[in-house]
Specification:
This protein has one domain. Helix content is 22%, strand content 31%. It contains 4 helices and 6 strands, in the order H-E-E-E-E-H-H-E-E-H. Strands 1-2-3-4-6-5 form a 6-stranded antiparallel sheet. Helix 3 runs antiparallel to helix 4. It is elongated.
Length: 196
């Protein structure tokens, strides 16, 4: 849960961790705590989310993501405060969707819309959206063509942390082909190949 030092039981970080752990997720998204990357902040909590994973603790062929809550009481200048959220979400796509020139902008707008719809107050947003097209050759020729969308973003949260986590969870599901609030609905394009 912590990079460098344990949080005191009633510290701001400990309260934030409790709030994050109390968040409920839709049934088709499995969220688990993972080791935090080291060196980003004195305190951090990292989560992984997978849309309908085939096995526990493995990346899903439908969509996957990471959510990291960082806390530095020294308030790094680029953060503009003591808190920062870093997230990642990716999903395979049908090749014809991967060539859409607006795909990156759409992925970013889904994140912003998810944050806004939950009233997740924030500032200093930044990120990248990457679309990848690939074709298998040789021993990988049977995989054919594939594409993938990947969104990496960070922002400084204000107010409660739960809306930020819920927005990230919605983004992971939307990239995987599930519309918001569609728990129990079949994943669109379930035959999409996983591409690396």
């Amino acid at each position: 849960m912590s990079d460098q030092r344990p949080a005191e039981a009633d510290s701001p970080f400990a309260r934030a961790v409790e709030e994050v752990r109390d968040t409920a997720f839709r049934d088709d998204l499995v969220v688990r705590q993972i080791p935090s990357p080291s060196g980003l902040a004195p305190f951090s909590l990292a989560l992984a989310g997978d849309v309908r994973p085939e096995e526990h603790a493995t990346d899903s062929p439908f969509g996957t993501g990471r959510f990291i809550l960082l806390h530095d009481p020294e308030e790094p200048e680029p953060w503009g405060g003591a808190w920062r959220i870093v997230c990642f979400a990716q999903a395979p796509l049908e090749p014809e969707i991967g060539v859409d020139p607006l795909l990156a902008e759409v992925a970013w707008s889904w994140l912003i819309d998810a944050l806004d719809s939950r009233g997740a107050q924030r500032h200093s947003e930044s990120g990248t959206a990457t679309k990848t097209l690939s074709t298998g050759f040789g021993a990988l020729a049977a995989q054919g063509e594939g594409s993938q969308i990947e969104l990496r973003a960070s922002w400084s949260p204000r107010g409660p942390f739960r809306p930020h986590l819920e927005a990230w969870a919605e983004l992971v599901c939307m990239l995987a082909g599930l519309p918001p609030g569609s728990e129990g609905v079949a994943v669109l394009g379930a035959r999409r190949p996983t591409r690396g």
